[in-house]
Design goal:
17 helices; 468 residues; seven-stranded mixed sheet; globular; 2 domains; binds pyridoxal-5'-phosphate
Length: 468
C-alpha cells in the first residue's frame, strides 16, 4: 500500500535542476567560464541600448514549458542581452555616477551567491554579519563616529536615505512623547534645494513635507540657510539632510556649520554621502567633510566610489538602537530572531530578507587594505582637477564650476540641447564614450563623473576634442 504522500510521483526531471550531475556541472563550468572571461576582459565594449523591437526580434521566446537549455540561454545573454546593456565599469563610462568594482570584489560577489548566505540575522548568517559589521565600523571610524555606531548594507542610497529618515521620524516622535509635547500636524525634513531626488522620494513614501531651502551661488548648504527653517518648523523637523558630494556637481555642503546648529537646536542630522563621502578616505579631500562626525546617520554607496559591484549602500547610525526601534518587524514566526540579543541586520532598514551585499567590499578591502582605496579615490580627484584645467584652456568650453571632488561640469559655447544630444548619441554610437547632456539653472551642459581609476586624461581629452 502506498501512502498518500508517495502517491504523488515526480518525473525524473523534478530534481534535475538541483542535483549535482554531469549536466549541472557543465552548466556551472559554462557560466563560471563566462564570468571569468568577462571579469578579466580588457576590451569589453561600452555597448548601447537596443530598441525594444530589436530585442523582441532577437531575444523573444526564451521562456516556455521545456526550456531552451543552458548553452542557448547563455549564448543569448552573451550575444544579445549583455551587448544591449551599457558597460558601467568601462573607463569611458562618464555619465550619472559610474561603477568601478575591483576584480576582487566582483569575483567575490559570485562567492556570496554560491555560499547561499542569509544576511538578515545573526542566527543564520553570523560570520557574514560579523564581516559586514567590521566594514561598517571601519567606515564609521573614518567618518569620526563613535565606536558604538553601526548599521547595515542596503540596496542603495535611496533605501538608505528612506530608512534613516524613518528612524529620525520615530526618534522625534518618541522624544516629543517623552517630553509631553504635542505631535505636529505634519512632519518636515529640511534640506538644500540641491539635495538628491531620493530625499523627496522618501518624503513622498513617508507622507511628510520637504522644506528645500535655497542656497547661494556656491550650491553649498550652510548653517545660516537652514536656521530660519529650524525656528519656523521647530518640533516638526524630523531631520536636516546635508549632502556630502552632490550628484550633479560633487558639492560638499558645509557640514561643520550645519552641525554647529545642534548646539542651539535639537535636530537629527542625516548626511547623504552616497557618492561623495568616499572621498573622505583620502587625505587630499578629508578636510572638506569636517562636521560629518556629528551626524546621527549617514550613507555612502560602495557601488559608487568604493569599488564594489551593484548593489550596496552603507547605512550607519550614530546610535543603532534608533534604527532597530524603527525597523524591526514583529511576527510570531520571527520572535525567535527579534527576541535575541544578537545583531540582526534586517532590523536596521526597510527590508527583511537580505543578501550579504557588504561582503564583496569586505573581501576586497581585506585583500588590498585601506591604503589602496585611499589612493584609488585620490586618482579620480586628481584627474578631475587636471581635466578641469584643460577645459579652462579651451576657448569654446566653459567650466560651470570648479570641481570639488570628481565631477566636472562644463558647457560648449553655442550648443543647444539638440546639439548636445546629437553629439552624445554619436559618441556612444561610435563606442568612444558615454557622456550624456545635463543641465543647471535652465542651461544645458554636460559632465564627467569620474570614479574609475582606469579612466585616463587622454580619454577625457579625446571627448573634449570631439566637441570642437
Ligand atoms: C546616487 C545618490 C543617491 C541614490 O543612491 P542609489 O544608490 O542610486 O539609490 C542618493 N544621494 C546621492 C547624493 C547620490 O549621489
Amino acid at each position: 500500500m502506498s501512502s498518500p504522500l508517495s502517491a504523488v510521483r515526480h518525473s525524473d526531471s523534478a530534481q534535475r535542476m538541483h542535483v549535482v550531475s554531469d549536466e549541472t556541472t557543465q552548466i556551472a563550468d559554462m557560466v563560471l567560464d563566462y564570468a571569468r572571461r568577462r571579469l578579466l576582459s580588457t576590451d569589453t565594449p561600452l555597448d548601447k541600448p537596443f530598441p525594444p523591437s530589436e530585442l523582441r526580434r532577437l531575444a523573444a521566446g526564451s521562456i516556455g514549458e521545456s526550456g531552451i537549455g543552458a548553452r542557448r540561454a547563455l549564448a543569448l545573454f552573451e550575444n544579445v542581452l549583455a551587448p544591449s546593456c551599457i558597460t558601467t565599469d568601462h573607463p569611458q563610462y562618464l555619465s550619472f555616477i559610474p561603477s568601478a568594482p575591483t576584480k576582487a570584489a566582483t569575483a567575490f560577489d559570485l562567492v556570496v551567491s554560491a555560499t547561499a548566505v542569509y544576511g538578515g540575522s545573526w542566527l543564520e548568517g553570523s560570520g557574514a554579519v560579523f564581516a559586514e559589521n567590521e566594514v561598517l565600523s571601519w567606515l564609521a571610524s573614518e567618518f569620526g563616529l563613535p565606536a558604538t555606531a553601526g548599521g547595515v548594507f542596503v540596496q542603495g542610497g535611496t533605501v538608505g536615505n528612506l530608512s534613516a529618515l524613518v528612524a529620525a521620524r520615530d526618534h522625534r516622535a518618541r522624544t516629543l512623547r517623552e517630553r509631553n509635547r504635542p505631535r505636529p500636524e505634519r512632519w518636515v525634513v529640511v534640506c538644500s534645494a540641491e539635495a538628491h531626488s531620493s530625499i523627496a522620494s522618501a518624503a513622498h513614501v513617508m507622507d511628510i513635507d520637504v522644506v528645500a531651502v535655497p542656497v547661494g551661488e556656491s550650491g553649498m548648504l550652510r548653517g545660516e540657510h537652514i536656521a530660519p527653517a529650524l525656528v519656523e518648523h521647530g518640533d516638526a523637523v524630523i531631520a536636516v539632510v546635508a549632502t556630502a558630494g552632490s550628484t550633479n556637481f560633487g558639492i560638499v555642503d558645509d557640514l561643520a556649520s550645519v552641525a554647529a546648529l545642534k548646539d542651539e537646536h535639537d535636530f537629527w542630522l542625516h548626511v547623504d554621502g552616497a557618492y561623495g563621502l568616499a572621498a573622505m578616505l583620502t587625505p587630499v579631500a578629508r578636510a572638506r567633510f569636517a562636521g560629518v562626525e556629528r551626524a546621527d546617520s549617514l550613507i555612502v554607496d560602495p557601488h559608487k566610489w568604493l569599488f564594489a559591484p551593484f548593489d550596496a549602500c552603507a547605512l550607519v547610525y550614530r546610535d543603532p538602537e534608533n534604527g532597530r526601534l524603527a525597523h524591526t518587524q514583529h511576527a510570531e514566526y520571527l520572535d525567535t530572531l527579534t527576541a535575541a540579543a544578537e545583531y540582526n541586520p534586517s532590523d536596521y532598514a526597510v527590508q527583511l530578507t537580505r543578501r550579504a551585499r557588504g561582503l564583496p567590499l569586505w573581501f576586497s578591502l581585506a585583500t588590498f587594505g585601506a591604503a589602496a582605496y585611499r589612493e584609488a579615490i585620490g586618482i579620480s580627484i586628481d584627474l578631475a582637477r587636471r581635466i578641469a584645467d584643460e577645459i579652462g584652456r579651451r576657448p569654446h568650453l566653459r567650466l560651470v564650476r570648479e570641481p570639488q571632488l570628481s565631477v566636472v561640469v562644463f558647457e560648449r559655447e553655442g550648443w543647444d540641447a539638440a546639439a548636445y544630444a546629437a553629439w552624445s548619441d554619436r559618441l556612444l554610437d561610435e563606442q568612444r564614450a558615454f557622456v550624456v547632456p545635463s543641465s543647471h539653472g535652465g542651461r544645458v551642459n554636460t559632465r564627467f563623473a569620474i570614479v574609475n581609476p582606469m579612466t585616463t586624461f587622454e580619454q577625457l581629452v579625446e571627448v573634449l576634442d570631439s566637441m570642437a
